[in-house]
Amino acid sequence: MIQESEASEPEATRRDADVTESSRANRGWWDRNADEYQVEHGTFLGDDRFVWGPEGLDEVEAELLGPPEDLKGRDVLEIGAGAAQCSRWLTAQGARPVALDISHRQLQHALRIGGSFPLVCADAGALPFADGSFDLACSAYGALPFVADPRQVLREVRRVLRPGGRLVFSVTHPIRWAFPDEPGPEGLSVSSSYFDRTPYVEQDEEGRAVYVEHHRTLGDRVRDVVASGFRLVDLVEPEWPAWNTSEWGGWSPLRGNLLPGTAIFVCERSETGALPAEG
What we know:
By secondary structure, the chain is α/β, with parallel strands linked by helices. Helices cover 27% and strands 22% of the residues. The strands form two sheets. It has a seven-stranded mixed beta sheet, with helices on both faces. A hairpin with a 5-residue loop joins strand 7 (200-203) and strand 8 (209-213). Helix 1 (19-45) runs parallel beside helix 4 (104-113). The longest helix is centred in the N-terminal third of the chain and has 27 residues, at 19-45. It is globular, with a radius of gyration of 18 Å. The protein starts with 10 loop residues before the first strand and ends in a 10-residue tail after the last strand.
């Protein structure tokens, strides 16, 4: 067996990657890198905190899902749950979460930490739940940055939400696509077009994708939300707080004080008229 240190580094490129290739690549990437991810970021995330992104915006303060006292007895789907830190926090508020992730290894970390809620290994584009199963859905950097068809995911979430249900999800702020993914000064100069939606792909020597990330402009995200049967209630761009001195990949105090790093979309299931047509 080839050891990780002996394996050649993947090639970074920009090319098309469809739904199937993206799903396969990212399931494999998260399975391989879950241990390192939890070691590197586990302390920041905590075991039972609900953090929306590298800025450290906490649901305790933000209340984007609603006041904590209103979460009691609510059925909540966490998409891209990782080690299910958010689901543990939701449980402590009296909610009934289900933690879903495409990565089996990430969910093994959820088992390691513990919790009384269900863990489900599945693709967000084909949710294994009946219509109207949940009151709320949330996703902190889960699934949506990595899928080729975000509307497929959003429509699936709408399907499993009850009337009036709320979805809140965070993604890398779209403006970051134009800048290098670097925390220092080199990450402050535009290096590519904000409007270039060609996916970022890391591929092996045989050209097989091992990691895929998809870009949508801010307008694209809004249109995706509306076309999938949601109403956009709020768009939150967290500012970098003075207490946060940590770096997380391309996120840092330097960049965070100048550029938004995270976009959080607060959506509600639209009940007016039929679901908009594909387009």
